[in-house]
Every structure is written in C-alpha cells, then in structure tokens.
Amino acid sequence: MQHFAAHASSALALLVLAIALRAGSGTTTSFQFDERIRHSLTTDVVDPNFCDPSSRSLSGYFGVDGSQYDSDRSKKYFYWFFERRTSALSNVTTTTSSIAEADDIPLIVWLNGGPGCSSMIGLLTELGPCLINDDGMSTRVNPHSWTEVGHVLFLDQPAKAGYSRGNGDDDTVDMTAEDAYYFFQSFFQSSEGKKYANNPLVIAGESYAGHYIPALAKRVADGNDGLADGDSSALIHLNLQRLAIGNGYYDSEVQFKSYAPTARRFKESYGIEILTKTEYKKMKKGARRCIKSVKQCNDDLENQLACQIGTRCEQETFFGVFAEKDISVYDMTQPCTEWNGCKDNPALKKFLNLETTKSALNVPSNVTWQECNDIINIGWSDRDRAFSTGPYLASLLDTGLPVLMYAGDYDYICNYLGNKAVALSMEWEKKDEFGDATDHDWGDGRGLARTAGNLSFLQVYKAGHMVPMNQPVSALMMIDQFLAGEAF
C-alpha cells in the first residue's frame, strides 16, 4: 500500500523571499515548508494577445529542491494560469468589477494523463481559451473554453512532462501529489496567487488523472486535516470544493473486464464492428489472465515482475487488435491520427517549441516540449498503473466532496463501461443508493446521467477519450452545471 508523506513540521516558519527577475516583470518567491525541501514559484504575466485577449494569464515554474526521498533531487513544474474571461463577467454573482477580486469564481486545475503527458494538450486542443491551428504557427480563440465559467490553471506534471523538467524519478501518484500539494501552497501564498486563495478549488482532468486526482485530493484533504490539528502555521487551508474526472483510469482489475464488452457493444450501438465473435471470446479469456497478474501486482507493489507482466498482458490482449485494424483506442469511429490522441500532434509540437512561444511563456530556450514522455509512462507501469485509486475516491466521497465522473462513449482505452463499473464498485456510504439509481437523459439527448448523493456519473454521447475536444458544447454545459451545484 502506498502512503502519503508526513505533513510539514509545525516548528518550521514560512520563509518568503521575493526577487525581481526583470524590471516590471515576474518574480520568484521562495518557500520553506519543510526542513528537507525548498520550494519556489516564478510568476510572469503573459501578453494577453498571445492566446486570448479577454483572459489575463500568468505562466511560470514551481521549483522543488530536495524531497522526502532524496535531498539531491531538483524539479521544475511548468504552469499556465488564465483568469475567467472578462466577457463572461456578466454571469458572475458578485458586486465587484474585478474578476481577480471575486472569490466566488471557481479555480479549475486541469491535469492531462499519460502518465507523462502534458496538460498543454488539454489547453490547446480541448478546453483552453485558445486552440492550436493546423499550421502549428498560431492559435484561435476557443468559444467553448472553460474560462467561460471559471479561472483555469494547467499544470505539467509529473516532472519531465511537457515543459516541466527535473532529475527526480518519481513513479507513483503519491509522490507527484506531494509536489502538487506544495505547488498549491506556494501559488496561493504568492503575490499573484494569494488573491485566489479563497476561491473554490476544483481539480479536473482526464485519463490517468483518474490516478492523479484522487491521490492529490486525498493529500489536500489530509493537509487540511493536519492544519485543523495544529500541524504547521506555514501552511494554509486549501478550499477544495469539487473533483471532475473524464474517461479516467482508476482500477485495472475493474476496468479490464470492460474492454471486450465495450468493443462488442459498439456494433450494437453504432453499427461498427470492432471485434469478431472469435476475437471477442479470445479477449474475454485474456482479460482473466491479465486481471490475475494485476491482482498479484496490486497485492504487492514491490513485485515488479507481476506488474510488468500485467502491463504487457494489457497491451497485447486489449490493444493489439486495434493496432492491426488501424482503429484509434481513443475514438473507435476513427483510424489513428494526430488529432485523436493516437499519435503525437505535429502542430502542438511545432507551436510549443517555437522560440516565440517559449519567450512569451517565459520558458527557457533550451527546454524542449514533448507531448508525452514515454520514459515516464514505462517507469510508472512497474508500480503505479495497477494501483487502484477507488479507495481514495471513496474516502473523499464520504467527506461529502462532490465528484463528477464523466466519459465519452466512443472511447475504448478508458471506456464508459469501465468508468461506470468503477463508480458502482466503490465502497462508500451511498454505494447502494448509487447502484439503485436510474440512468436518465441529460442535456436533451447529449448523454445519460446517474446521481446519488455527491457522486454523479455522466455518459457523454458521441465523444471519445477527450470529451471537450469532441463535444465542446456538451463539455462546457457539463462543467457549468457541475460548478453551479445543479443536479445531473
């Protein structure tokens, strides 16, 4: 079983040092929450004309020197923050004219998955205020950006994902959650970020964020509980209010059972045959073998051989037939392309490695952006992939934290049947109530919803792995409804 690191020592005082990087430009603020680790936050204002003139934005790096594992580790996490659009201000229930001063506007932190993929994917192809153009040289304003309904911060994590870098070799969500927790502490205590410290904090993401988000939210909850017990005056309470996870990867043992039925049912639902009867039976049989290996791994996370066998079994049993037939595991209606997550997107790679882009975002010129880091992906497969985050999510649900699990039904790799099975299997106080609830229409034919207590599950029609990309109107309606606390 994985464990969270101990809270920062209550004996340590907060050390803050602001250093001007350039006249009239950004600052670096240093923090010492723990005697073993030094944190820093660099913040620069981004030219509003670079992405969306109606949204003020900041970018920078969160630095971590040392860790609870190794004093020589050094990591820098890139982030890009956008305030809610000024054009959306008329919908804000506040008496102030300043968006930055309105503490009722939700602040959404978005995490892409992988593990090892950049959150700039979500920003520039899904829900950010601007979207990448095909030429890889420019962007266009996204009318369905989630900045219509809140502030949005995109964080590249783990270290060495996207623009982030470092010499650490973190390979579990608990390790990454520790750094992300202190990123929140640093951001909300910085000169630019402290104005948002009282805003409702919403953590959202997709895919492997089904691992990231429950672990991070658990770390935040544990940190808040520690403050209530008087752990450290250097830390502040984080106003965590909601979680939203799309097409998440939570629990291999549960989700492996869904692959064959998802592919087979696709013919019944949409008339597209993915698997023959013979292939279906073979996959069902293979699933039992994969689940056995994953269970051995999950029972003993130090059993790397079992973990590796489980990962290899997953690739061969569930995904091989898709590669042979050139069908995208992210959208079963499409062949593999650069625009459905099946291959690296050359436009993204080109744009984010332009010197003009890096200069605008205050990224060092010697940093190379990559869409997904295969080394991270492979390394995490040895331990973390098999680990179920369902218990983390269940414990958070029991505190009353609202959780939205949503899934596009064209997706295969983190399909809606598997996501729904996870939602139904979690052991929490309203498990039976959720199981007895009925699916009902959502959004006048945009999907099917089920709700019990503070858990909602939403199947989004005609969307693949990346719901905001495929169904941007539905995605914006969904997050707006969730943030408003309206029932699904």
TrEMBL record:
Domain of life: Eukaryota
EC supergroup of this enzyme: hydrolase
Protein name: Carboxypeptidase
Keywords, alphabetical: Carboxypeptidase, Glycoprotein, Hydrolase, Protease, Signal
Species of origin: Thalassiosira oceanica (Marine diatom)
Pfam entry (one): Peptidase_S10
PANTHER family from the UniProt entry: SERINE CARBOXYPEPTIDASE CTSA-4.1, SERINE PROTEASE FAMILY S10 SERINE CARBOXYPEPTIDASE
Family the entry assigns: Belongs to the peptidase S10 family.
Signal sequence, renumbered to the chain: 1-26
GO biological process: proteolysis
InterPro entries linked to this entry: AB_hydrolase_fold, Peptidase_S10, Ser_caboxypep_ser_AS
GO molecular function per UniProt: serine-type carboxypeptidase activity
Enzyme Commission code: 3.4.16.-
